[in-house]
Amino acid sequence: MSTSTADLFAQPLDVVNVGLAMFEDDIAAQSTQVTSLHWTPPGGGSPEAVAALDSLEKGDLPERIAAANAEAVDRITSAQPMLVGYGRALDVVPGMTETTILHSGPPIDWDRMSGSMKGAVTGAIVFEGLAKDLEEAAKVAASGTITFSPCHEHQCVGSMAGVTSASMYMHIVRNETHGNYAYTNLSEQLAKILRMGANDQSVIDRLVWMRDVLGPMLKEAVDLTGPIDLRLMLSQALHMGDEAHNRNVAGTVLLFQALAPGLLQSSFSNEEKKDVFDFIASSDYFSGPTWMVTAKVALDAANGVADSTIVTAMARNGVEFGIRVAGLPGEWFIGPAQKVVGPMFAGYKPEDSGLDIGDSAITETFGFGGFAMAAAPAIVALVGGTVDDAVTYTREMGQITTTENPNVTIPALAFQGLPTGIDVRKVMDTGILPIVNTAIAHKDAGVGMIGAGITHPPMEAFQKAISALAASI
Amino acid sequence: MTVTTVIKNNTYLDSVSLMSISTKANEIDGVDQAFVAMATEMNKGVLDNLDLLTPELTTASNGDLMIVAVTGDGVDVDATIAAIEDLLVRKAPTSSSAGARIVHRTISAAVASDSAANLAVIAVNGTYAAREARKALENDLHVMLFSDNVTVADEIALKALAHDKGLLMMGPDCGTAMINGTALCFANAVRRGSIGIVAASGTGSQEVSVRIHALGGGVSQLIGTGGRDLSAEIGGVMMIDGIRALAADEDTAAIVLISKPPAPEVEKKVLVEVAAAGKPVVVYFIGGSEHAVTEAGGHFAASSQDAALQAVRLVSDGSATVPPLDAEAIRTVVDRFAPDQRHVRGLFSGGTLCDESMYSLLSEGEEVWSNIQKDPTHIVGAGDASRGHTFLDFGDDEFTNGRPHPMIDPSLRLERLVAEAADPSVALIVMDFVLGFGAHEDPVGVTLPAIAEAKQTAESAGRHLEIVGYVLGTDRDGQWLAGQVAALQGAGVTVTRSSTETGAYLRAVTHHLSALKGAHS
Fold it and tell me: What is the ipTM of this complex?
């Protein structure tokens, strides 16, 4: 580092080139060290966002924000999520009623819901006995008798459509460090399922079985075995090649290993236990929601840290993408939901895709999923095909985060911790948007999952957040 | 429509890879639908729903891979299947994960990973330029700010910050610098030596450095200040810091200052530094006053050539010389003009080169029109036709608005060349051809067709059109100086040997033309 021209003249020139690539070639041709930035206009090109970013750099604000962010990320990394049980949403979820339906993402009313979310909502209404069929369910949904509310506003997260109704069984997760709770639904496993917008009789029948057999059996199992340390298990799963959003092979095996003694000792018949074992084996996704709620309970602990610019939730409802920030608790910053780009099941084309949907980006908000692609070489096809691509994604996320999580690490990166604590300022400064791994639901109600891939939040959500932060801090 | 099925026994690929392969297979020409999957019951169920499940596929087992392709009529099925099978071949392993290249998005990130970084070259949209420059200074980097459209207020703040930190703040609108022998942005491959340059003018400093090289000298450092540095508002902060830096630099034996005439109060401050430098300082303030410079103990230079010559003599045995103009050749040229051919048109890519030629006529009392005229009654805009002697700087904002600099994109100047040739009052067109880093790879070559067309236009109207070209460059520049000069001469262009000689040539020609005009009237 040089602080005077005398030093500069005495040192080898070492150039940071910003903006024009041709200058890099000319400088390199003279055997001078040069690094070119991949430069994009800050603030996503919005002058208001740049002004907000600059205003957060004035006076003692950087120190105040740094202290607040250190507190926020400490809460996230020190949280100890424990799976303490399972229970019906009506019994355990704050604010739940018999006519409440929770959904993923920021608030949205029935009229504006995406096809897959409408499919899930009508399916749930039939499942709860609030309508005799889907046609009547659509009328009920539109009638105003149903209370629609985001999962995130009830200490919950919901995969894909996130549709959660009163009698569905939920994971109950307690953060031992900070004492808060979070909840999420059970995996219906993959493809033609309610959370992907499918809602025919096979879907309803499965939900009934989950309510009457799977859920109660899981509850008994955990009551028998005692709480399960989810952070430890997540850490192990990442060491075994999961990124715990789109790949859950290891995590599901580990979770089942922990649950199995309790499931075996439960009061159910052997036939019912075999059904549960078969169900768990039918899809690696079984533990997917478990990792979502693990992230949720940790991130919720950071909500309300004054002056913090750390993102505590990223969530999509199929129409809009919303983010929440630690220093502005309860607020949503919203932009349009994006397309998901990635491989699709045979027979489907990109134009069949619904837009980005689900609370599962809570995993990236915590630092796994797309942020931990380097841990999951088996699914690099999602991000372009090479292990280098995966490593690059994880390293890039390091540029918009605040710390590395010492408790959850990535072997391939020399046990570097998860990139943790997305800082709204860094997203605006670098133009790097968080990467989100996700599934693709069909755009219409009733079909289900048709692919998987990656996507990003809209820049607009971060532009709104930086402006609100500048106004409040 | 044809349905083709292939079963690859005992072949396993994971489901994510297969989804990716299916997606790519569906993009193959002629494929209506392609399905590549393991033969699980679920996948066979999907095929059944699509009415594609053949008896053969039914018997395939979990460990077998199925390829099903639905192709249009007339499609080569074998080639299609081969293309799909090609997708199954895994990508060759790339370099180890440690080799994945990290691409930095911000100056802070780049500095964090390379603590030896010491200078930022910034060329971004003016809206963001000041911010990036500030970030660079805050990260203790010297700055060359190529961008223009930075406000005066931002320039003042940036230069104050840099001054306080002991850093160079070259720019905004700084196109040329050479630090530790490395040419930055628009600069030439010049020998390293003991002459330090501080310049508010990009092409002016290119010209002086190239002349120094041609005279056998070399450059220690070339510090650009940006064109506004010597204005009253900015106060010459960078030129003063630059002089001090070179005064303290052991490898610099003499200093050259290059600028348009500074604001008077700024000139005073700069000349105080000249007096205090402790080493010889050559001052080339285009059209500036000799008296003030010599009073301050500086060496006054009347031209860019003079500035280079004096500097080289100051650091060597003083024997360097410049050959004189060939007066006889000029008389021969003037004799070929028709009576109506009276005017000179200058089409320049370099601002200072345009300036120097223009001043050579102004100093003879000629009436000159230009887009960079100081006299507001003699301004010609980018959209205006030329009149009398007109000199255009195509690098000026009015011409570059929304398009690359003429050193990179010569198209506007080429059009203008052809248009000027059709004007029967035009005797001579003068052009510069700037070589070096950042410049067009073959500035003469790209102009030759327009030169031929211009000559042809004049000739078919019975006129001799004199085209004068100056090639700014060194024998070390990548564009091959000798080749550029030879190409111009081959096209009938008179090639001058410096910016100063170009001005002298024009002055001599117009002197003759005026004399002729006097004789006629």
Answer: 0.82
**Which bin fits B484, alpha (ψ -120 to 50), beta or left (φ > 0)?**
alpha
The closest of B324, B355, B361 to B342, measured between CA atoms, is B361
Q: Does B102 touch chain A if contact means CB atoms closer than 8 Å?
A: yes
Nearest to A392 among B100, B104, B437 (CB): B100
Q: E strands of A298-435, at which residues? A: 311-317, 320-325, 333-336, 357-358, 401-410, 416-422
DSSP percent split of chain A into helix, strand, coil, nearest 5 = 45, 20, 35
Determine which helix (DSSP H) or strand (DSSP E) holds B258, and give its type and residue range: strand B254-259
Buried/exposed code over A32-68 (b: 16+ C-beta within 10 A; e: otherwise): bbbbbbebebbbbebeebbebbebbeeeeeeeebeeb
Interface contact A343-B248, CB threshold 8 A: no
For residue A383, what is the nearest residue in chain B, using CA coordinates? B20
The answer to whether B181 contacts chain A (CB < 8 Å) is yes
Q: CB-based contact (8 Å) between B52 and chain A?
A: no
* A208 has a chain B CB within 8 A of its CB: no
A419 bridge partner residues? A404
Q: What would the two tokens of residue A395 be?
A: 């390293």
pTM: 0.82
Burial label for A133, CB within 10 Å (0-12, 13-18, 19+), is: exposed
- Rounded Cα–Cα distance for residues A369 and A234 (Å): 11
How would residue A3 be classed by pLDDT, with cut points 50, 70 and 90?
very low
What does the pLDDT look like over B56-112, one tens digit per residue? Answer: 899 887 778 899 999 988 889 999 998 888 888 755 444 444 444 568 889 998 999
Residues of chain A in contact with residue B95, where contact means CB-CB under 8 angstroms, are 388
* Residue B437 near chain A (CB below 8 Å): yes
Residue A265 main-chain phi, psi, to 5 deg: -85, -5
Q: Do B249 and A6 touch (CB under 8 A)?
A: yes
B399 touches chain A (CB under 8 A): no
pLDDT band with cut points at 50, 70 and 90 for residue B454: very high
Which of these, B233, B449, B445, B421, lies nearest to B345 by C-alpha position? B421
Peptide bond preceding B406 in cis form (omega within 30 of 0): no
Q: How far apart are CA A196 and CA B121, in angstroms?
A: 50
CB contact under 8 A, A19 and B249: no
CB contact under 8 A, B146 and A20: yes
Q: How far apart are CA B370 and CA B497, in angstroms?
A: 24
Q: How many CA atoms lie within 13 A of A365 on its CB side?
A: 34
The one-letter code for the residue type at A327 is G
User: Residue for token digits 């507001």?
Assistant: B376
